[in-house]
Prior knowledge:
The protein is of the alpha+beta class.
Amino acid sequence: xxxxxxxxxxxxxxxxxxxxxxxxxxxxxxxxxxxxxxxxxxxxxxxxxxxxxxxxxxxxxxxxxxxxxxxxxxxxxxxxxxxxxxxxxxxxxxxxxxxxxxxxxxxxxxxxxxxxxxxxxxxxxxxxxxxxxxxxxxxxxxxxxxxxxxxxxxxxxxxxxxxxxxxxxxxxxxxxxxxxxxxxxxxxxxxxxxxxxxxxxxxxxxxxxxxxxxxxxxxxxxxxxxxxxxxxxxxxxxxxxxxxxxxxxxxxxxxxxxxxxxxxxxxxxxxxxxxxxxxxxxxxxxxxxxxxxxxxxxxxxxxxxxxxxxxxxxxxxxxxxxxxxxxxxxxxxxxxxxxxxxxxxxxxxxxxxxxxxxxxxxxxxxxxxxxxxxxxxxxxxxxxxxxxxxxxxxxxxxxxxxxxxxxxxxxxxxxxxxxxxxxxxxxxxxxxxxxxxxxxxxxxxxxxxxxxxxxxxxxxxxxxxxxxxxxxxxxxxxxxxxxxxxxxxxxxxxxxxxxxxxxxxxx
Length: 507
């Protein structure tokens, strides 16, 4: 040890304690000479000193710290040590010393004759903090991009591949589709020539052949060390690092989502990095399922459009022409021609009902306060009731409903009553006794109990003039409002339709 005195040099007993410390400790006198170091402190100082200084001294003690470590002069260490010396106030700080690639937690205790300095290497701690920050930012970015409804799937996927490559520190991210023993690259953000969109290879020569058999991710840190050297996949792609998960659409295999690098990895993928890949894999699976569902919906729409076009043009137009010709020749009220007119009229009603189901639909739109009794009287005038009678309650029965759809529901119930009960039938509309809704009943022949569960099925009818669609439309309109409709026996023995679950509006 150098004999240079210094008040900051510890006594013998304290030196024993300091020498056993894992952290670094050293003391400086007022002239910035090192008066004492423990073993760790000496190692740190020796590593930081210029080579010629280290070679010329058996010990770092006695050396001027700034002359021996000139790289430290323009650093926070220099500034804070001088601050402590000048103010005689303790100083604590964290700082990165670039020449040693090390973060230190530093505590400086001054005295009139020098400084006592405690150094703790916190590089690993800082790296963990930076990794946590990277983890948080990656997950936040994953959420922000994946939940952006304004961006198309393909654009979001490319952004997430770019994010994943940066976060996982690999150059290749890609989505595969596996079909009939072949792997196809569907999308990628990659530098590897064989991992570009449109590239394909036999599944037997791909890393993904093992991925699709995993319940969780397949991770490879060092392919050569993990036994991939003789695998055809290693020969074709030469990937040293790989992490990938199985992509499923509607519970069936679609392909894989993977990240990879030709270089091996020094450390395994962290738990959070693997969670990132899992989340991205599940998001891609969900998006592909949604795209498939949207495509199916569009195909259904196209079929509906084609159907309504046929009904509108290929059926309605010739029907209208036939009705017009019959009206022209039926000057004398011929019974045979009347039968033709009745058949044509039924066809027209059938077409109207088909179009309601296929094109107009039964979705409710503007819900407003509607008086059921008043609307019933309006609907009665346009429902082809042919002399039947309506008895609507005098009480105000105001419900929240789509006015046009509710009117259509009432018209169909009125028409059904007349079709089954004839022109002398009487129809009554009133609220249910328990105030859960309202009912429409008639005094016609009624509906047998054995047939009541079938009346709402498309095509079912017991009337020679019925289309079998009118009550189906009634049920769909009720369901669109969140109501239920059931059929039973009326107070006069006829049919009684009860609409329940209705939201009433107070006057």
